[in-house]
Amino acid sequence: MPEDTIEPEPVTIRPVPEKTIYLARWSSRFWAWLIDIIFIILFLNIVRDLFITFLRLPFLWDYANLDLVAIGIETIFFFMYWTVMEGFRGQSIGKMVMNIKVVNRDGSKINYLTAGIESIPKAFLNFPFIVILLPLDCLIGWLAMPGSKLRVFNRISNTIVIKADYKEPHGILYVRDKE
User: Fold this and answer.
1) Which residues contact 88 (CB under 8 A, 6 or more apart)?
2) Domain tally, the chain
3) What residues make up the domain containing 50?
4) Which pTM does this prediction carry?
5) What three-state secondary structure class fits 127?
6) Is residue 176 part of a domain?
7) How high is the mean pLDDT of the chain?
8) Is there a domain that residue 80 lies in?
9) In the chain, what are the helix, strand and coil shares in percent, each to the nearest 5?
10) Which H helix or E strand runs over 102?
11) pLDDT tens digits, residue range 91-149?
12) Is 171 among the domain residues?
């Protein structure tokens, strides 16, 4: 073999991914969370007004009349809301509005246990002394896992938040008029 011949570099072939998953933006996740908080607070205050004589619950933001029983009931309700909604469909009402959902890392549907683990920092939001849990959860995710779009409890529960994909049914094409 002559010495001036250059051997070609080996070509590496990358495997083609089976599917593409688009991670949700932090802003979409924040707005979905805020929509959920507003919805839950409104719902709980309506329930409180209906049963005022029985429960005597203070408003969620009324920390002057702090009642541990009321906070416990509200926290359980927050936790159950996110666990049931995200365990059933992967979406809370806020996530439905923002067109995002919680799934396993491979894109499959999560179960109720996974949804419960993922929901812990969101549920303990209204305890005055634990109000830091969700911001801390997000902050550690941003700093320790940059670019991954994961909170700590997403990592613990092995979940991701993705853009929901609402495709047209197979064989049907929707034609939209231009506005």
Assistant:
1) 112
2) 1
3) 26-163
4) 0.73
5) coil
6) no
7) 79
8) yes
9) 50, 5, 40
10) strand 100-104
11) 999 999 999 999 998 888 999 999 999 888 888 765 554 567 777 777 888 888 887 88
12) no
